[in-house]
Structures are given as structure tokens and as C-alpha cells.
């Protein structure tokens, strides 16, 4: 069936597929079908050039399309990816890391290396040396949700 469609439409089948993929991108979230559509359009350009060649069978066209779609995707990711932006709030979405350096009072004792502190409106699990309730501690690191503390 695929071979018949390509034979009937000629090199324009790739142009049609490319335009359909670009139109489908408008209906779907993300920016992925654009690169596959560009691969199809590039295959259409090559098909216009090589259509009369005996070596330009549908199998070769599919391989060229797959390769061009991968190349277009990789180039698109490389050139359109956002570089690391310098910001005045580098820890904005890293709440645990933003707590490093703060001091707090133990809400639960640290027993066998584990305890809890209350910071703002949240209780945080902490790890550190065994200490009684009410001890002032300084947060020295964050590992996911667990904070590592030492006596302040």
C-alpha cells in the first residue's frame, strides 16, 4: 500500500506527508512533529531530484526519511534548547537546597541519627548527631527531602 501511494503521488507524497505532520503539530502539544515534518519535506526535495533514478526506490526513500528526521530532531534540540540562564533566584524550585545555611530548632529529638525540625510551615526530616528537643541546629546540606544538620 505504501509503495502504491508513493508511486501514484510521486515525489509529492513526501511533501504531502511533511505538510500533514506540520499541520498535526498545531493540534498536539510539544514541538516534535515539526522535526519529522521537516525530514519528510527534505525527503521530498531529494525525491524531486532523484525520482527518475532506479536506486531511488521506496525502501531507500524510507531510510533517507528516517535518517533526515533523526538529524532534524537532533539539530532542532541543539539549536533551540535554552542555555543555562543566569538568574537572581538559582534555588527557586529547589526548596530543600534553599534551606542550606538556615538555623532551626529541633521539634523532635534526633535519635539514632534521625529527627525533625519545623521551618516556616513545614516539618522537615533531618539527619545528624543525636540531640535533644529544642536544640538549635544549622542545616548544612540537603538530599532530596532529608536535611543534614549540625549543632548551631
UniProtKB/TrEMBL annotation:
Domain NfeD-like C-terminal intervals: 98-151
Principal place of residence: membrane
Stretches that traverse the bilayer: 12-28, 56-75
Name of this chain's protein: NfeD family protein
One GO cellular component term: plasma membrane
Superkingdom of the organism of origin: Bacteria
Keywords carried by this UniProt record: Membrane, Transmembrane, Transmembrane helix
Keyword Protease part of the UniProt annotation: no
Membrane topology: Multi-pass membrane protein
Species per Swiss-Prot/TrEMBL record: Rhizobium terricola
Location in or out of the cell: Membrane
Amino acid at each position: 500500500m505504501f509503495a502504491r501511494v508513493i508511486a501514484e503521488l510521486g515525489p509529492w507524497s513526501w511533501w504531502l506527508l511533511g505538510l500533514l505532520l506540520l499541520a498535526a503539530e498545531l493540534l498536539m502539544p510539544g514541538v516534535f512533529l515539526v522535526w519529522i515534518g521537516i525530514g519528510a519535506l527534505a525527503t521530498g526535495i531529494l525525491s524531486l531530484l532523484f525520482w527518475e533514478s532506479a536506486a531511488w526506490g521506496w525502501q531507500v526513500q524510507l531510510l533517507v526519511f528516517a535518517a533526515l528526521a533523526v538529524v532534524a530532531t537532533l539539530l532542532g534540540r541543539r539549536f533551540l534548547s535554552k542555555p543555562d540562564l543566569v538568574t537572581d533566584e538559582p534555588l527557586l524550585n529547589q526548596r530543600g537546597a534553599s534551606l542550606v545555611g538556615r538555623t532551626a530548632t529541633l521539634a523532635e529529638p534526633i535519635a539514632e541519627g534521625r529527627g525533625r525540625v519545623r521551618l516556616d510551615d513545614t516539618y522537615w526530616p533531618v539527619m545528624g548527631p543525636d540531640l535533644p528537643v529544642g536544640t538549635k541546629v544549622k542545616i548544612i546540606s540537603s538530599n532530596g527531602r532529608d536535611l543534614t544538620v549540625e549543632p548551631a
